[in-house]
Amino acid sequence: MADDEETEQPEVAKKKTSPMVALLVLAVAGVGGFFTGTSVLAPRVISGASGGVVAGGAETNGGADNGQGESVGDGYAEASEVSRTGEEGHFVELGNILVNPRDSRGLRFLMATVALELEDASTRTNVLQREVHARDVIISVLERHTLEELAATGGRDSVRVEIRRELLEAFRLNWLIVYIPQYVIN
């Protein structure tokens, strides 16, 4: 009888630790899945998605006339139009852009990072030399909008198109893709 009691206790202990072990395994798997998803898969998915639909390009879906007989488009290009030369893009990243939206009375702000893909290295150098001007153009575009406009569905995309249009004009560019990888409203 004493032997039966001793053998029953380890089984009870095993039953109590089994849910704990299962929870621990699930927690480790969840953390591993989160890490894999955010560090490995997400950059690939995002780069693949932005390769298919990005701001910029000469011919765009749903383009509109700018009043001068030129199509300004809706800011999106097909994947085949993204890299005109087949080379790696020439990027300029403008980070830490903080803006108080119109009518926010300084109580709310938008923090954004805007990345520009440019046609060639000389254009990239030109934009880098005039970074202050590029930042000013971007800030001017963002400050024109109310918090509701910026937070609305499609607000980010309409801002992207407007930034592209203003930068094309300010820098007299022929080709530009605008990315907004960070867009946080507080």
Mean pLDDT: 73
Instruction: Give the domain tally.
Output: 2
Question: Which CATH C-level class of the largest domain is it?
Answer: Alpha Beta
Number of helices: 6
Main β-sheet: number of strands, strand sense, barrel status?
3 strands, antiparallel
The low-confidence runs, each spanning 5 or more residues with pLDDT under 50, are 44-84
Give the CATH architecture of the largest domain: 2-Layer Sandwich
Question: How many DSSP-defined strands?
Answer: 3
Any idea what the shape is? extended
Record the strand order, biggest sheet: 1-2-3
Beta-strand portion reads 15-25%
In which range does the helix fraction lie?
40-55%
What is the CA-atom radius of gyration, in angstroms? 26 Å
Question: What's this entry about, in short?
Answer:
This protein is α+β, with helices and mostly antiparallel strands and 186 residues long.
Descriptive account of the structure:
17% of the residues are buried. Mean pLDDT is 73; it is low at 44-84. The protein is an alpha+beta fold and 186 residues long. The protein has a three-stranded antiparallel sheet with strand order 1-2-3. It has two domains: 1-52; 79-185, 2-Layer Sandwich (Tetrahydropterin Synthase, Chain A). The protein contains six helices and three strands; from the N terminus they run ααββααααβ. Helix 4 packs antiparallel against helix 6 (155-171).
